Automatic annotation (TrEMBL):
This is Exostosin GT47 domain-containing protein. PANTHER family: EXOSTOSIN HEPARAN SULFATE GLYCOSYLTRANSFERASE -RELATED, XYLOGLUCAN GALACTOSYLTRANSFERASE MUR3. It is a single-pass type II membrane protein. Residues 154-489 form the Exostosin GT47 domain. InterPro entries: Exostosin, Exostosin_GT47. GO terms for molecular function: glycosyltransferase activity. Residues 9-18 have a biased composition (Basic and acidic residues). GO terms for cellular component: Golgi membrane.
Length: 616
């Protein structure tokens, strides 16, 4: 009985207007026969169609049908439909999906029709389709495959650069006088962002390759270095990562003082709107995108919309949470910003300039055991700068270059570099934020840095500096200095001269990785800070893509512990308690969410002070 009620209704649909046939067995078989051939034809033209160009049209219209009918069919075709959803979106895929739905649909409605017939019809189609359906395809697989092409030197390393409208970059350079209220940035924009050349009157620098570079110039230096990258591509489908040449640091610095939050956030909103309309965005929701903001992360992490709060909220925007942003100081508790070195004054144009500099730093006389360039922080009870300055002043082994307000030697690149070149160790306590440009200037001079907080370098520049921090630096936890328990001089004097020599050699070997080469030329074999950063981004995106394919993304990842993940050794994937936990624990008000905290709020509030001097 049921058969009769089902089958005719199907007929009515299929052969509109045809009169109801008599319920004879003959007619039934004839119908089946027709259906069979319809399916064979369908299968032949649609599934096995040799001309791929002919397919999209059919696919599109069928996809629409499939979409309309999807809900009630899912249950019928459980087995067949399970795979497709993952595939949706791929050009190949919809065809497979539709075919699976369309073809059997007719069959299923006839489910009580003699089993043998149904089996014959359904089986070949289903088997063929199952074989044809790709396992699980992702649009970025083409890019991953380029790495397997042995004859392609750029395989797996292509970068696609968005062609942003000039308001996101070039226009800002034209309006350079408005980039900062404290400094006229115009002169620093010369020479592709390196600034004016430094003359070598004191014989401290080399004769070429030295510039009075502003510490916040990485936006433009990095952007110009990218123009020289050897594996740029116009084809985003083979790109290992996508670069967004937005001058994020310049954008925010224009509005840091005296502008409302609407003004400060305008650039980021505009950028994100632009990016999200691009087809490249949809490939990974922006997770293969990266950009540079040559300032500290706190300038882009405004916690609330209070007008008195510092900075813009770029790094809190959902789109920016998917991207990777390179900054000169990252947030230890966040996963979307990564620290890259501050620029130094040295921007060599060729390998040879670097080798000569390294040789010179190896052979220098270093009369001072340690030195410090900087200003105290009398308003900050937690700062150890006052203690360090006192210790330095009272030690005959220490050279001090005290920075006070106004002009002082502490703002002269030549005086600073000269002091670092005459010292074995250079003290690098926190300033108004964890990091300082000075750490890189001192390493460039072959001076072994002494850090007092792991946030000043060890959890920051994990791409550029060795994980084994004792190989190139000395760590003196700041608590001991603050309590007056620790003599820096004693600690440094107790290090064996052979060890000092080894550490200095390591520092000098690190020089290429922590400097930005002249963006108008290219180092032949050496990898500079730019090269290291780009290859780290590529590794990161490549790993993410592989994890997505193998469905092994770390579901337990807790962003608040970002700094611990950064310290993991190769292959390690789980984190636990860490000896530096006390340095990064923070009271966390619930309403502020995991993204915020007291330390970051404080750092943000203090970050304006950094603008006023390189070495402060
Ligand atoms: C491999 O790379 C070479 C050089 O770029 C290119 O000509 C060739 O088409 C690539 N092969 C494949 C299969 O993509
Ligand atoms: C923010 O400042 C701009 C210009 O300084 C002004 O046009 C705008 O109305 C201000 N917006 C708010 C919400 O105060
Ligand atoms: C961020 O990426 C996720 C995962 O790909 C995606 O679901 C989400 O839509 C993306 N966010 C934005 C703002 O595009
Ligand atoms: C770290 O470096 C120091 C000095 O080079 C060395 O003695 C030590 O064995 C290294 N530690 C590890 C874990 O490699
Ligand atoms: C410094 O010394 C005092 C007294 O010996 C001790 O109580 C304190 O814990 C020490 N501080 C540190 C950071 O070692
Ligand atoms: C952060 O902590 C300090 C004391 O360490 C306190 O004075 C300040 O109010 C706190 N700030 C916030 C935003 O909670």
């Amino acid at each position: 009985m049921r058969r009769r009620s089902v089958l005719p209704s199907h007929h009515d649909d299929a052969e509109k207007g045809g009169g109801k046939p008599p319920q004879s067995r003959l007619c039934f078989l004839a119908t089946l026969c027709v259906m069979f051939w319809v399916l064979i034809f369908y299968f032949h033209f649609s599934v096995l169609a040799p001309d791929p160009d002919a397919r999209p049209v059919a696919v599109a219209s069928q996809a629409r049908i499939a979409h309309d009918h999807l809900p009630d069919r899912v249950s019928n075709h459980d087995g067949l439909l399970r795979a497709p959803p993952a595939v949706v979106g791929m050009e190949e895929a919809p065809a497979a999906v539709v075919e699976k739905e369309e073809a059997p649909a007719a069959v299923v409605e006839k489910e009580d029709v003699p089993v043998a017939v149904v089996g014959k019809e359904e089986a070949p189609a289903a088997v063929a389709e199952k074989e044809e359906a790709p396992p699980k395809e992702y649009p970025f697989q083409r890019a991953l495959k380029t790495a397997e092409n042995a004859s392609d030197p750029c395989g797996g390393r292509y970068i696609y650069v968005h062609e942003l409208p000039p308001r996101f970059n070039e226009d800002m350079l034209r309006e350079c006088h408005s980039l900062s209220v404290w400094t006229n940035m115009c002169k620093f924009m010369s020479n592709d962002g390196l600034g004016p050349p430094l003359s070598n009157e004191d014989g401290v620098f080399s004769n070429t390759g030295w510039y009075a570079t502003n510490q916040f110039a990485v936006d433009v230096i990095f952007g110009n270095r990218m123009k020289q990258y050897e594996c740029l591509t116009k084809d985003s489908s083979i790109a290992a990562a996508v670069f967004v040449p937005f001058y994020a640091g310049f954008d925010v610095s224009r509005y840091l003082w005296g502008y409302n939050t609407t003004m400060r956030d305008a650039g980021p909103h505009d950028l994100v709107d632009w990016l999200r309309k691009r087809p490249e965005w949809n490939v990974m929701g922006g997770r293969d995108h990266f950009l540079v903001g040559g300032r500290i992360a706190w300038d882009f992490r405004r916690l609330t919309d209070e007008e008195s709060d510092w900075g813009n909220k770029l790094l809190f925007m959902p789109a920016a949470k998917n991207m990777s942003m390179l900054v000169v100081e990252s947030s230890p508790w966040n996963a979307n910003d990564f620290a890259v070195p501050y620029p130094t004054y040295f921007h060599p144009a060729k390998d040879e300039d670097v080798f000569l500099w390294q040789d010179r730093m190896r052979s220098l006389e270093r009369p001072w055991l340690f030195s410090f360039a900087g200003a105290p922080r009398p308003g900050d009870p937690m700062s150890i700068r006052g203690q360090l300055i006192d210790q330095c002043r009272t030690s005959s082994f220490c050279k001090l270059l005290e920075c006070d307000l106004g002009e002082s030697k502490c703002h002269s690149p030549s005086a600073i570099m000269k002091m670092f070149q005459s010292s074995l160790f250079c003290l690098q306590p926190q300033g108004d934020s964890y990091t300082r440009r000075s750490a890189f200037d001192s390493m460039l001079a072959g001076c072994i840095p002494v850090f007092f907080h792991p946030g000043s370098a060890y959890v920051q520049y994990t791409w550029h500096l060795p994980k084994n921090y004792t190989s190139y630096s000395v760590f003196i936890p700041e608590g001991g200095v603050r309590d007056g328990n620790v003599s820096v001089e004693e600690i440094l004097r107790s290090i064996h001269p052979d060890v000092v020599k080894q550490m200095r050699e390591e520092v000098i070997n690190l020089i290429p990785k922590v400097i930005y080469a002249d963006p108008r030329s290219k180092l032949e074999t050496l990898k500079d800070a730019f090269d290291v950063s780009v290859s780290a981004i590529i590794n990161k995106v490549t790993q993410l893509r592989k994890d997505i394919i193998s469905d092994s993304e770390d579901k337990d990842f807790t962003e608040e512990n970002s700094w611990k993940y950064e310290l993991l050794e190769e292959g390690q994937r789980t984190i636990g308690p860490h000896e530096w936990d006390p340095f990064f624990s923070k009271p966390k008000p619930k309403d502020m969410g995991a993204d915020s905290g007291n330390s970051s709020a404080e750092a943000a509030k203090n970050s304006w002070k950094i603008e006023r001097g390189d070495q402060n």
